[in-house]
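Sequence only, no structure available. Ideas?
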Amino acid sequence: MAAAALASLTNLPFVKHLISNEHLPLAEKKCLFSKDAACATPPVLHCSKRLVNVLPRHARAHREPQPRAITTRLHPTAHAANADSPKGDGVAKISVRELSRQTGYSPATISNALNRKRGVSQETAAKIIKLAQELGYQRTGKLARVQFVIARSSGKLIAEGAFRLAVVNGIEYEARQHGLSTTYITLELANERTREQQLASILSDPTSGIVLLGTEMTEADYSLFDHAEAPLVVVDGVSGNHFFECILFSNEGSSYRAVRHLIDRGHREIGHLSGETRIRNFPLRQRGYERALAEAGLPICGEYTVTLSTDKPESAYEDMRRWLAGKPDLPTAFFADNDTLAVGAMRALAEAGYDIPGDVSIVGFDDLDYASITQPALSTVHVPRFDLGRMAVKKLLEQVENPNPYRCETHVSTTFVERDSVRDLT
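Reply:
I predicted one. C-alpha cells follow.
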C-alpha cells in the first residue's frame, strides 16, 4: 500500500519537476523515496522552499538521522586563501549544504545544530559545531533575538535606569521592525562566579545579537567579550584595546557647547558639579568644560568644584546640602556632569534659600525625563537615547547581513535644550 502511494506521488506534476531538476543531487533524489535507514536525508520533498511530507503519519516519526561517516579532513575550499574576496576576510565560506555533504547529516539537522534549535541532541550538535568551525563555516543567517546586556560595576550610575530605559525602548522598537525578540540581562561584573555563568550563556549563541551597555565598563572588562560568537555592539562605551562596534555620543564637544552657552549669557564664574564615580564619560565632559573656560580666558576655580554622588538625585542632594552648610562662595553658574547631579543640587540650593536662576544658574547633561518638569525646568544636553537603541540593532543586522573585517566607532551628536535654569547676565 505504501508502495502504491509512493508510485502515485511520482506522477504529481510538482514531484516530476523536482525529480527532473538538474540542480538536485542524484544522491538526494534516491534518498527521497528510499527505505534505506542509512540514508541521511529525511523522507521529505523539497518544493518551493516548503517541506512536504510524503509518508503516512505512522511512518513519519524517525530518529535523528545518523551520519554515514564523519570526517575531520578539511575540504580544500574550506580554508583556502581568497585574496579576491570583496569582504577581504581571506576565508572562503562553506555552506550548510557542503557541511551536510561532508558530515553526512541532513541540511536540516546541520541548520538546527548551528542555530541551537531543538530536535538535535547536545552530543550531535557539539560534533556539528566543532566540524563547522574546523571547516571554516561562517554563519550568514538571520538573528533570532537581541540581548540587551547591562554591564554593572558599581551600580551607582545605571541603577535607576533613566538612561537605560530610553535605550531599551529604541532597541525594542527596531527589533520589532525586523521580527526579533528582545531579552534583558544584568551582568554583575564584580561577581566573578555568577558573571562567568552569565557570560557562557550570553556569548555562545550566534543567533542572539548583543547590545552591550558600556556605561560602567572599564578597559579590562571588555576582554570578557573578546570571543563572542554572536555579533556585538557597545552602546555608551568604547575600548582602546579591543575592536568592537561602538556607538558613542559626543561628550567633550557637548559639554563644551553647554559651557559656551553659559559664557555667551554673560557668566564668568562657572563651577563644576562633578560625578563621584569617574566613568569614562565624566573626564571627557570635564575636558569640554575646561576647554571652554580656557578659550574664553576664564579661570578654573577649584573652590567651585563640588563632588556629588551619582546613583540618584537624592544622594546628590545630600552631598550638595552638606557642601552648602559650610557657607561657601557660589559661582554665578554650575555645569553638571549629568542631570542626576543637577537636579539634586537644585533641590539643595532651593532649600538653602538660593533662587535658580536668579542667584545661580545650572545646566545638566543627558536630558532625562524629569529634566523638563523640575522647578525651574533644567537647561541641559539632549542625548538621543532612543535613537542609540535603534542604531545598535541596525548595526547588529549589518554585521550578519553584510559582514566586514573591521569595526567602527560611531559618534552621535547632541543638542542643547534651553529651558529656564540659566539667567542671562548680558
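The chain is about 35% helix and 15% strand.
Hope that gets you unstuck.
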